[in-house]
Amino acid sequence: MQVKNLTRIFALLIILSGCALVTDEYQVNQRKVISYLLEDLPLPEDAEIVKAPTVLLGTGEAISGRIILTSGNSPAENLVFYGNETLNTGWSLVSSQVGEEITLVYSKSGRYVTIYLTPRPTFAGFFVGDIGSDIDISVVHQNAISRQNPYQDLDFESLPD
Question: How much is the pTM?
Answer without folding.
Answer: 0.70
